[in-house]
Every structure is written in C-alpha cells, then in structure tokens.
Amino acid sequence: MSDPAAPASPVAEGGPDRLFAVLEQLPAVVGVFRGPSHVVEFANPLYRRMAGDVPMLGVPIAELFDDPENRAFVDQLDRVFETGETFHGDGWRGIVAGEEVFYDFTYVPLRNTSGEGDGILVFAVDVTRRVGAQRALEVSDVRFRALIDADVVGVVVADAERIAEANDAFLTMAGHTRDELEAGDVSWRRMTPPEWAIGDEHALAELATSGRFGAYEKEIARPDGRRVPVLLAGAAFEQDPLRIVAFYLDLTERRRGERERDILLAREREARREAELAAGRMARLQKITAALSAAISADEVAQLVVEQAVEALGAAAGVVVLRDGEELELRRHVGYESAVTEPWGRFGVDAPVPLAEAVRSGEIVTVESVEAWEARYSASVAGVRQFEALAAVPFLFHGESLGAMGVSFSRPHAFTAEDRSFMLALGRQCGQALERARLYEERAYVARTLQEGLLPDELATVPGAEVAVRYHSISDGGKVGGDFYDLFDVAEDRWLLAIGDVCGKGTAAAVLTGLARHTIRAIAMRDAAPQDVLGFLNEAMRRQVVEGSYCTVGCATITPREHGGFSACLASGGHLNPLLIRPGEPVREVEVPGTLLGFVPHLELEPVAFDLEPGDALVFYTDGITDARDEGERFGDERLWAALEEARRGSADDIAEAVDEAVRRHQPHSPKDDRAVMVLKVADAHCDGS
Predict the structure, then answer these.
(1) How many domains are contained in the chain?
(2) 3-class SS shares of the chain: helix, strand, coil, % to 5
(3) Distance between CA atoms of 468 and 499, rounded to whole angstroms?
(4) What are phi and psi of 467, to 5 degrees?
(5) Where are the beta strands (DSSP E) in 562-674?
C-alpha cells in the first residue's frame, strides 16, 4: 500500500459498501481516520464499544481518547500519516473507561487516487488477558523463587518414595542434612508416622486423578524423635515417572499459639462465667433483699431464703433453723426427706453439727466432702449427712446469731470466694429481715391487743331480731385502725346501735376511738336521744382531742313495737347512710343528714324515725367496704348493693358474710383500711322472736 502506483483505496472510492459490511463483522477493532487530525470516518462495533458508545464519526480521534495514557497511540498515528509507512505494535498499553487494556495493532496508511496519503486504517486485537497471564506467570515465578530462597516454607521435589530436591527450610524442619539428601537417604514415607500415613495415601490418589493434592495436615518424625506438625500441598509435574513438587509449612508456632489461645480463651470463659455468675447472684441478692423487706414473719423469711439460696447456689437441699434461747428450731426445709429432718426439729446450740457451729461461731462453716465431714464431726450425725458437701451460714444481726441456713450438695463441692461472699451477704440480709419480722410481730401483737380493747367483748341480744358483724382491722400490720361498732341496752326493751370511723391510724386514732366508744355508752345510759349522744360526743372531742381530729358516727335506738317489729330512731355525725332491705322492695338508702364530729362547736342534727317491719334488715357499714381497691378500682356502691340483693333472703349473718366475701374477692390482699359491716334483721312474723 506504500506503492504510489497502487490503485486508490476502495474506501476512498466510496463504493464498496460490501467491504464495510465485512469490517463490521470482524472480531477486532477496525477504524478508518482521515486527514492529519485523524477524523473518524469509520469505526466498527468493537471500536465504538471501546470508545464508550459515544458518537465517533466526524470527530478527531484525539478528542475521543483524551486520557494522557493514550497519547502514544495518537503520536504513532501522526508518524504513520507523515511517513506513509505501515506500523505494527505488540502489547501496547492504554486506558479505556478507566481500565487498563493492551492491544496488538497495525496502522496502514491510505492514499487517494492521486497517490497522496489522506488517511489511516487501524486494525487492533485486544490482548489484555494474554498480557495479564504473562504478568501473573512472571509474578508467580518471582514469588516461587523468593519462597524457595527465603527458607520460610519447605519446598521439595520428590518421587513416589524419596525426596530428590529440598530447600534449607525443609531440611531444617525435617532434621536432615544436605549430604543425606544428596545420598538419597531422605524418604518422605519413612518420616511419616503410621497414624498419619492415611493422609499421604489420599494425597497420592488425588495426584493420580487430578494431578494435584489439596492441603492437609500431618506430622513428620525427625531423626531426633521429635515430631513436627506440618501443612502440605503439592502437584505433579510429571506422571510417568511420578515427579512431585510439594510445599511444607511448619505449624509448630501455630500450634503453640493455638494452645496459648485455648488457654487464654478458657481463662476468658471462666472469667466471663464468674462475672456472669457474680452479676446473676448480685441481681438475685437484690431481688431477695426486696422480697425480704416485704416479709412480715420469721416463717416467711425462712421460706424465702432457703428456696432462693438453693436455687442460686445450685444446691440439692436447704434448711433454716432459728434460735430459741439455747435451742435451734427447724422452721423450713426443701430437698430433705422427712425421715431425716424429723429428729432434728429442735436441737441444742451446742450440738456437734455444722448449723449449730455456725450459730456459735457467727462464721460460715463449709464441709466440702464426705472425708471432711467424717474428720470433723462425729458418726452420731451420719444419718443427717445424706449429701456430699454442705455450707452452714449464720444469720447475723449486730453480732448476734439469730439462726442459720444450711445448703447441701449431692457431690463434693469446692466453695469459692464468690460463693462465700454471696452466702455471707445473704446471711446478713436474712438477719436484718428476721429482726424486722420480730419487731413487726411485736408491733402487730400490741396493735391487736389495743384494737381488741377498743371493741366490745360481746354485743347485746335483741329479742325478735338478729344481729351480725364482720370486722377486719389493719392491726395485723402493726397499726391500730379507727373503725368501731357497738350494740348495748340502754333501758328495758331499748337498745342503742353505733358504728363509727375515726380519722387516721395509730395511737392518735386509738385514743379517739376509745373516747368515742366510751362516751357514747356513758351518755346513752342517761336515756339520751341519738342526736343528743352525738352532740355530747362532738363537744367532748373538741375539748379533749388535738385540733384537726374528727370522726363519723352513725347512731340508732331500737325499741320493740307492740304488734311486732321495731321503732328506730337514727342520727348521723357525717357517717355513711345505712341501707334498708325490705321484702318485696329493692334495697334503698335511708338518708340521715349530719355533720362530721369534731369540726364545729354546735351541731344541729336531725333524727330520722321509721319502723322496721318483720323481715326488714338494716345494714350499717364503714367506708373500708366501699373504698376497698383492687389495682386502683374501688369496690363501690354497686358491688355492695349487688351483694345485698343476692343475700337479702338470708339471715343477718348470711347478709354480713355476703358483703364481707364480696369485698374479700375484690381485694384479696391485706386491706389498707379497717372495714366493718353490721346487720340488724327483724325476725319474720311467723318466728317467735326468741
């Protein structure tokens, strides 16, 4: 094509569309450029794809491939255009779409009909993969040589029995000299211990089928008797006769590191386990402490602590004994057979057993095995020792042992410092809880005694009527309530009924309750009307009670009528209105106006008089009935009236019990306030009234 007499290019003639069609199908990069600026006249699909599928025709090639890395291609185009000489290049590097590429290419000058150069035909083949493979081979060879020379990895060339070549790293690893190697005395089979030979056989089988074997571990036996753990892999570069290149990696340091790692991991796991155990026990101790603070009796304390201790320590059984003078009384136990515990219901503080020793010494006593038990205690208690190990923990309060807890284990048990710390803290918390329970029980006893003194020993009998009372006091919680009731005769065939609720609780409430009840009795005995009784009580309260104290009182006199039934006269010092149950009518409220007692100096109370017919029932109650709450919801008037409707045909006792049971179902836990209900029911007409 450099011959000036050569015919013009078919492309220049512009006629041979068939040639362009062929170029379009070539699996190579083909382009035609015109003029010194190398304006693109033709580019086949591969060329267009290489340019990023942007419009190419009519654009100088330098604008399409403007990366500096591609400048050499453009410069070579300039030289071919100027010289008119064809150029061949192999493996030229360029950048396309930001990626490194390599091409073998040819630039062919094109001439017009006058023989002058006017363009260039470019033909190029992508050899990026070939160049990459060559580079990888070169890098691999360099690395292989470096690996052999570095003496880090053992490299050997071997046949089916012996090692023919090896680097110094392998000889050092295997404990052989180069003289032994050159003499043919180094056999890879002989240096493999019998228990590892199966791995070698599998490797040879892989070589026969695939020409290589994957990495596997084994040990090699050195002449000095020491074994070296190795990881090896290899490939066959000849099959007949078999020639293998293998790589050995010494795992001694890795194994040592793994052992050290395992030790550290074991220590870490143990530390984590101890930390989790400590955290769990601390959380449990806080939970136990909170539960103990709510315990109000020694038995509750004993039951709670023995159950929690057995679970927290992973024990098989537990027992709690409490001190009673010079004896210890078994109060609670779990996990022991009754035949074992029955003989030890009570025993002396001086008994030769761990629990007694813990109480005497005020220190934790541990017995970690059968041998330790037999060496420390007499055989007379062998029947109790049905477990292998035991710990006895004293319950201390200000240095005094109030009792002890024992936890037993079915196997020998080494008690850790954390075990002892937990048990000691638990023993102290239990000691404090026992002291609180003792004080609580003493206060409750005083409150019950005082409360009982504020209530009548018995109620008067009213011929022709039934009377029933249900009363619950908060005195079991160590407090004295303010509800009271009474029924007594004030004259022949005349009785006075009273029910009241004193503001507050405790000693002040007890004083006011006693004043109210005894004042009512004293004034009523003068045959005073109900409103006069309450007026006198109001004055007495204002004179003798601290300012701000008050109470509500409902009062009624009951007088039999000649032809049956009773005449009633009611007065109220701000108390809840009584409820009337009358046969054939719905339950209704008897409105009795009145004012709280203790507030104002002069009361104007209006009595309410009405007749009680045979079968009628009059129900008095305190606000502890309607204000009883279950998770915030009041018992209320509707539930009270429903209970009365349900029991209306029953006796006075049936009615009182129905109200009490309904409140108890609504508020199953200890009441926060006293509650009292008093029912007077007139006998039916057919009854004799006796």
Answers:
(1) 4
(2) 40, 30, 30
(3) 13
(4) -130, 135
(5) 566-573, 579-581, 588-589, 608-612, 617-621, 629-630, 633-634
Which long-range CB contacts under 8 A does 3-11 form with residues at least 24 apart? 4/111, 4/115, 5/115, 6/111, 6/115, 8/111, 8/112, 8/113, 9/110, 9/111, 9/112, 9/119, 11/41, 11/42, 11/110, 11/119, 11/121
Q: Tens of pLDDT along 187-224?
A: 999 999 999 999 999 999 999 899 999 999 999 999 99
Average pLDDT over residues 455-479: 82
Q: Do the Cβ atoms of 444 and 475 come closer than 8 Å?
A: yes
User: What average pLDDT does range 507-526 have in this prediction?
Assistant: 82
Please classify residue 302 by burial: count the beta carbons closer than 10 Å to its beta carbon, then call 0-12 exposed, 13-18 middle and 19+ buried: buried
Asked if 152 and 240 touch (Cβ cutoff 8 Å), the reply is: no
> pLDDT value at position 151?
59
Q: What is the CATH number of the domain that holds 568?
A: 3.60.40.10
Mean pLDDT of the chain: 84
Q: pLDDT confidence of 568, banded at 50, 70, 90? A: very high
Quick check: 580 and 655 in contact, CB under 8 A? Answer: no
Tell me the percentage of the chain whose pLDDT exceeds 90: 35
Q: Per-residue pLDDT for 25 more than 60?
A: yes
Spatial CA neighbour of 445 closest among 482, 473, 477, 470: 477
The string over 566-580, giving b where at least 16 C-beta atoms fall within 10 Å of a residue's C-beta and e elsewhere, is bebbbbbbbbbbbbb
Give alpha helix (H) positions in 333-398.
Answer: 338-341, 354-361, 370-376
| Domain presence at residue 266 | no
Question: At 349, which CATH number?
Answer: 3.30.450.40
Q: What is the CATH number of the domain that holds 61?
A: 3.30.450.20
Report the alpha-carbon distance of residue 132 to residue 137 in Å, rounded.
9
Q: Which residues contact 357 (CB under 8 A, 6 or more apart)?
A: 365, 392
Question: In the chain, what percentage of residues exceed pLDDT 70?
Answer: 87
* Full residue range of the structural domain in which residue 194 is found: 151-250
Report d(CA 308, CA 556) in Å as an integer: 55
CA–CA dist 96, 47 (Å, integer): 11
Question: What's the pLDDT score for residue 585?
Answer: 95
Would you tell me how many other CB atoms lie within 10 Å of the CB of residue 408? 24
461 and 411 inside one domain = no
Q: Report CA torsion sign: 177, 179, 181, 184.
A: negative
Local structure of 249: helix, strand or coil = strand
Phi and psi, residue 206, nearest 5°: -65, -40
pLDDT for residue 534 is more than 50 = yes
Mean pLDDT of 58-62: 90
Instruction: Quickly state the pLDDT bin for 610 (edges 50, 70, 90).
Output: very high
Alpha helices in 525-633 (DSSP H): 530-544, 623-626
Which among 471, 470, 474 has a CA at the least distance from the CA of 450? 474
Q: Tell me: do 434 and 459 sit in the same domain.
A: no
Task: With cut-offs at 50, 70 and 90, classify the pLDDT of residue 4.
Answer: very low
Span 288-341, pLDDT tens digits: 877 777 777 888 888 888 888 888 888 889 899 999 899 998 988 888 888 788
Token reading at 310: 């057995």
CA separation for the pair 628, 626 (Å, rounded): 6
